[in-house]
Amino acid sequence: MKNYRVDWNLGGIIIFLSLLVAIVSLFMTWIDLGPMTWNGLDQKGYISLLFWIYPLVRLFQNKKIHSIIGIISAAAAIALVLFFLTDLSVDFYVVEFNVTGIGVYVFVVAAIALALGVIMYQKK
Question: Would the CA dihedral through 6, 57, 70, 24 be positive or negative?
Fold first, then answer.
């Protein structure tokens, strides 16, 4: 039987915690229209979790994360969520409203933490 040992540095811990924060944000409000709200699961935000696959697989294998691939993965997660953020503006007569809930902002922080964790994770 193989003995598994988690040997993560600060970058690895940040990557794992950013995944947990991203998952929690999916249950928070992503769209808030007053009496009507939708969470990240309703908005298919779980698709954005695909960008965590490569860093997590390398992390659990205790192997080096290639910086370019990891940063591209994190940047794609950030770009996708920022696109979602800017797309949630509603024009009502002359005034523009942003109906984004707190969950999207928490997800952006998690995606930025993913990028930071990938940069900080250096395997010997």
Answer: negative
Give tens-digit pLDDT for 77-118.
999 888 888 777 767 777 777 788 899 999 999 999 999 999
Q: d(Cα 102, Cα 113) in Å, to the nearest integer?
A: 17
Contact indicator for 65, 123 with CB cutoff of 8 Å: yes
Q: What is the pLDDT of residues 53-70, one digit of tens each?
A: 999 999 888 888 888 898
Long-range contacts at 75-78 (CB < 8 A, ≥ 24 apart) = 75/115, 76/51, 77/48, 77/51, 77/52, 77/111, 77/114, 78/108, 78/111, 78/112, 78/115
- Report the length, in residues, of the chain: 124
Q: Would you state the structure tokens that stand for residue 57, as one six-digit string?
A: 């697989």
Could you give the CA distance from residue 24 to residue 41 in angstroms, rounded to a whole number? 11
Q: Which amino acid is residue 36, in one-letter code? A: M
Return the sign of the alpha-carbon dihedral for residues 42, 103, 82, 120: negative
Instruction: Please state the φ and ψ torsions of residue 8, each to the nearest 5 degrees.
Output: -105, 145
* 39 DSSP β-pair partners: 29
**Amino acid (1-letter code) at residue 117:** G
